[in-house]
Amino acid sequence: MSANDLEEYRLTARKWLEGNLERRDPDVGPSLRGVDHKTVEGIALERVIQRKVFDAGYAGITWPTEYGGQSLTPAHEAVFNEESRPFRTADFGVAGGTTMGVCARTMLVHASPDFLRRHIPRILAGEELWVQFFSEPGAGSDLAGITTRATRDGEEWILSGSKIWSSGAYYADYGMCLSRTDWDVPKHRGLTWFGVKVDLPGVTVQPVREINGDAEFCQEFFDDVRLSEADVIGEVNRGWTVAQTMLVFERGGSDSGEVRPRPTRPKGLAPDLVALARRAGRDKEPYVRQQVARAHINDFAAAQLARRVGGLIRTGRGNPAGVASYGKLATGTFGALRARIGMEIGRGGALVWEPGQLDGMAPSVTYLNGRLGGIAGGTNEMQRNGIGERVLDLPREPSFDTNRPFNEVVRAAANWTGATGSA
Amino acid sequence: MSANDLEEYRLTARKWLEGNLERRDPDVGPSLRGVDHKTVEGIALERVIQRKVFDAGYAGITWPTEYGGQSLTPAHEAVFNEESRPFRTADFGVAGGTTMGVCARTMLVHASPDFLRRHIPRILAGEELWVQFFSEPGAGSDLAGITTRATRDGEEWILSGSKIWSSGAYYADYGMCLSRTDWDVPKHRGLTWFGVKVDLPGVTVQPVREINGDAEFCQEFFDDVRLSEADVIGEVNRGWTVAQTMLVFERGGSDSGEVRPRPTRPKGLAPDLVALARRAGRDKEPYVRQQVARAHINDFAAAQLARRVGGLIRTGRGNPAGVASYGKLATGTFGALRARIGMEIGRGGALVWEPGQLDGMAPSVTYLNGRLGGIAGGTNEMQRNGIGERVLDLPREPSFDTNRPFNEVVRAAANWTGATGSA
Amino acid sequence: MDLDLSDDQQLLRDTSARFIEDRCPLPHVRELAASADGVDPTYGRQAADLGWYSLLVDEEHGGGSVSGKSFADAAIVALERGRYLQPGAFVPGNVVAWALAHYGNDEQQAKVLPAVIAGERVATWAAADSSGSWEPGAGATVEPTGSGLRLAGAKGLVQDAHLAEWLLVTAASPTGLTQLLVPAGAPGVEIVRLDGLDITRRFCTVRFSGVELTPADVVGELGGAAAGIDREMQVAAVLTLAESIGAMDQDFTVALDYAKVRTAFGRPIGSFQAMKHMLADTSLLLESSKAIVTAAIEALDEEAENAAEVVSMAKAYVGDSAIELAQNCFQTFGGIGFTWEHDQHLYLRRLTADSSLYGEPAWHRERIWQLYGL
Amino acid sequence: MDLDLSDDQQLLRDTSARFIEDRCPLPHVRELAASADGVDPTYGRQAADLGWYSLLVDEEHGGGSVSGKSFADAAIVALERGRYLQPGAFVPGNVVAWALAHYGNDEQQAKVLPAVIAGERVATWAAADSSGSWEPGAGATVEPTGSGLRLAGAKGLVQDAHLAEWLLVTAASPTGLTQLLVPAGAPGVEIVRLDGLDITRRFCTVRFSGVELTPADVVGELGGAAAGIDREMQVAAVLTLAESIGAMDQDFTVALDYAKVRTAFGRPIGSFQAMKHMLADTSLLLESSKAIVTAAIEALDEEAENAAEVVSMAKAYVGDSAIELAQNCFQTFGGIGFTWEHDQHLYLRRLTADSSLYGEPAWHRERIWQLYGL
């Protein structure tokens, strides 16, 4: 590939973009709520855009032609991304990121050629949006402890159980679903992934209303849903291997140790908190100033820590997954503290607001979200375990669930005594 | 016993006291350091006083006459205590309290009549001061995990190992020493107590210099010390039963659930901290005022908590040892916080002092002692376990040391993998 | 919380608890949270029948405690209310009843007090300004006119003002702090319903645009209300503390139960030391909060010389501890605590609001220095 | 701490570490702690041979960094010093060297600076007052007399003043902040040796009773030292931070090792989640402290516009984190940490002192608002 080829690719792409897509409206910023709420109708319009891109050969640029991609180089992809930035490309919201960044990538590593031929071209064409059916109401930190079951019935599988915290499932087409297919082996060894179409009989998708008022996550119920052998992704009972691949993609490949740019210098003193202190007429109160400065400093410390963690990975100084827990734990602890400082300095005035007054509501919403970083995507406790065992090399916690059949683990947990067998 | 008898006893005692003991000097307050340092020479003078009291029949008033006591009632003892308060009775310091309050009482429950006849009269006469040889450098929280060993050798026992944190051992005559006599049974079942004379060949007593400059505690080394069967206290290999009795006496019988008087209302705003803030010229600084008030409030909360714990025990609302952990944990956490607040408000000025300037030194000494409550006599972690399991009835921690021979426990701990046997 | 309830007190507790269970359990609390007014009209009258608004008023004025310790009695009700996050202006209503019984003129005592005690009319207390400052009289001023008085300014965090018949308003006057009993419908009174973090209660901002009043509307002496307002703050703080204790106790109980039955990694999560120790620390917060609130209640019942200090200590201590407790319970529940359907957030919302109402912890800490004249 | 040391920097680190190991390991630190002077006279000269006092001085004035980043280089030395709690006025000595190189007059640069760089004479910095305030010029005033200047007042927390030949004194003058290079032996200078929490270093109070000086003793402009003092505070803070990081790292390393080998209840104590999680949190404090100090060093080396803010953020953050780290290590060691013979208390003492020196956390937090003009 010569520079000329790339330049030609760029010009062709530019021309196509100008002729086929609208320009992005620069005034449309991010929405006020954390997540942009999608509707099924809105998504249909996005599918039309994606279809155009796919038909023109600009979807899956680096992916195999066999599955609808273009088998070009990452350089081509980078060129197209650059050129398409000013244009209004398809926005599938959080499910779009999950489809392309997590599910399809995981499929490409583990699914059968048949499966890939069936689904990847449709994904690239915007016809299939995929989300993860992974966490369960009864299995959060202990992801491998899921109890949604898939039971073989002749040529078919019967799925039952429930999943939760699937982002954007209410407008997705498929879920990539982890289920237990063998209960007589240790927990990591009896898991299998399936592709589950959300409109199959027996599948119910319900939005989960969150305490902050959002409803971007869903819970799914599977009531004897019939699946076929063709829906299996990866090997039966080897689902944990697939899950590990997926978790790497989910972390955004942050294990790669790429050099992070220097975090921006702080752009002013914790602007939200200073504004809040001013609204409360308290920005000259020494105690309030202490608390605001504390939050501001923690923000800066967290940013510098993220940079250091990148450096540790880059220079091979630590187990990547282990040291990444530093950043997560900092977020999980500083976040709650900062949210509380907001309520503290806003005091009574921050408790109430005139209906619709968004800046009045902001401290409360932040406060309600304050513990999110300490729970979602791995609790503080899980991060501390990770740091303790993977980074500090501290002696391991005794394990009660890795060496025995999962159904025994479930039984023993329900009848816990703390006794360990005499030697 | 009639009121007349008691009144006569009172008059006789008063007359004896006036004729034989000096009056207490009201100007001698408690010393500036936490503990009054004793010397062997000073103790000899105290022994003379105690001998007088003993000879007059006022030592061991409620204890059996068989062992040198008077077999009288607690009421007689209370009368003598009242009458003797203005007089200069024997002060054996911390070892005196241990001898009478802990060791002798434990012996009376568990030791053989022979042992009691030999030692209790001498204790009452001031001839024997006893301390505990209990904790070890390698066994603090895990008291039953001690490794000082006593090995049978014909009619004798050979003691080797080391003990630490024995208060006042440098001027005591005997230590009551817990040792392991059977390594092939679980840890609580192979323990035996011995009376160890501190001047026996092979016994070395060394003061432990503490970080606050005090040296009231000692460490002992036992280098093949020969003991006889007559030195055994209680039954061989049943030492844990003895230890439990001892721990109850050590807690001062606080399990009794007696009604505590209402804690005094605070006598002023944390006077030490306010004085410190003033010396630093900071008593008008809002942040300093917040910190001082915080400490003051915690002091009050701890006092009210102590009262509540007494009430919980009194009204049978909780396992006494369990709820007592609340008070200990409050001390252990508030103490460190308060000590740090002192250094914080004193800032740089509290770091230094002119030699001999006691109030300048005080914040630093308090600071160095700040963690004492969180470690000594049961760490914060042990209190949290106690509250969690005994009060809150949370599922138990897995146990690795209760059901197997102690020598295996030691080996397994040194080769810890965290694995538990597969079922 | 009190370890030695009398038989009558136990009866008060049990009837209150049963009333709440029957009349307004958590599912109904959620319904009310979604309703326009936030409380239904008959609830207050029924509660009044149980004595909820008469405990702080002496018999002479139509009230009566059950044990002779009126604050201990009212705290019993408050605790049960807090346990299930009861709606309605119990705290400010009792403050008004207490204030009228102590300082009201004959007409106020004859016409208003009985209606409040009977739960027939809602009266509420307007003490803070709209920034959340609890400095006495904050936000409002009253000035003599020719024949009467004119009230101006705005008060914030006025609970259930939208349902109230009367507002007891604290205000600064040229001669000192003053309290006024203002009809909510008086010309120039504007009541703005607010949204809020705590969805189980409703707060309003009340604006006064030159409201014309007469000397008969003053409660106590014009310019002489400083001591009264201080004591009312203590009453409000102690009742709020007792409500907080009920909410803390319930939140913790549910979290503790969850830690015993939820399993992960082949064990109940409560068997993990990290969880066990967090719950032990949380339990210490709860027990010490109960202990210090008990002391505050006694200080009021005994009219202790340092009652103001003890109440401020309790309000500061529990104000921080309650939030920490609710956050720790949240951490125990994990993801499920983020769902609207789980009650955890209702407790977090309520306890966070309680922490600021009637003086946030930092305000009370500073106040302790001032009480010592330092 | 810095993840990308150059070869020259590694050499600087290794020679410094070896020197400390040979010349002044912890047992010798303890001997010095018990000695009259607190540091032995040859140590400073030998350290100077390794460049310890020349790194912040440009080549023109006889100094030189090894990497072109003088603060990064000095921090390398400081970190190794902190690791084994080295005695001596490294921080204030370097501040004086930096100040003389930047603001000194010809004579100061010709006579004093070389002696300081060579470690032949001790110069130290007198910036705080004796209450521990680090407000610029605190505690001392200088006033013009007929022909000269008169210095009065007292400075506190002056490290190694009892060994110093010169004191760089910050003082208020009628025309603004001023710095003076005062011979320690000048009439009217009284140096009082103090005892202190941190037994590995010596601090003095220095009193000035009308000390007569000349304009030649001024460093920089009379009344024009505000910017210089600010920058010197940054230099002092950053070097102290680097020393703290070394001490934190070592204290934590030893505690971590202990948690792996000490057993209780049939397990290494580090396998208990309570201990493991406390150590994980402590490790987060350490790593984030390293990260923020790295940023502060870079800000000085790059002369970043917001260097003052970054340094204040780092000093506030690490000032709290270091104490928490030392307390957590103490909790890990348990009883043994209370014994004089265990090194834990030396680290606790040192880190607690570092937290206050050159501005305690609360001072730096307030300062950040001021730097924003708020």
Describe this structure in words.
- The complex is a heterotetramer, with two copies of chain A (423 residues) and two copies of chain C (374 residues).
- Chain A has 13 helices and nine strands.
- Chain A is globular, with a radius of gyration of 24 Å.
- A four-stranded mixed β-sheet of chain A has the order 1-4-5-8, covered by helices on one side. A four-stranded antiparallel β-sheet of chain A has the order 2-3-7-6, with no helix packed on it.
- Chain A starts with a helix and ends in a 9-residue tail after the last helix.
- By secondary structure, chain A is α+β, with helices and mostly antiparallel strands.
- With 374 residues, chain C is of the alpha+beta class.
- Chain C has eleven helices and eleven strands.
- Chain C has helices spanning 7-23, 26-33, 41-49, 70-83, 90-103, 106-117, 226-261, 273-301, 307-333, 344-356, 361-371; strands at 123-126, 140-144, 149-159, 166-173, 176-183, 189-193, 195-196, 203-213, 218-219, 263-264, 267-268.
- Chain C has a four-stranded mixed β-sheet.
- In chain C, β4 (166-173) and β5 (176-183) form a beta hairpin.
- In chain C, α5 (90-103) runs antiparallel to α7, α7 runs antiparallel to α8 and α7 packs parallel to α9.
- Chain C is globular and about 80 Å long.
- Chain A binds chain B through residues 285-287, 290, 395-400, 403-404, 408, 412, 416-423, and chain B through 285-287, 290, 395-400, 403-404, 408, 412, 416-423.
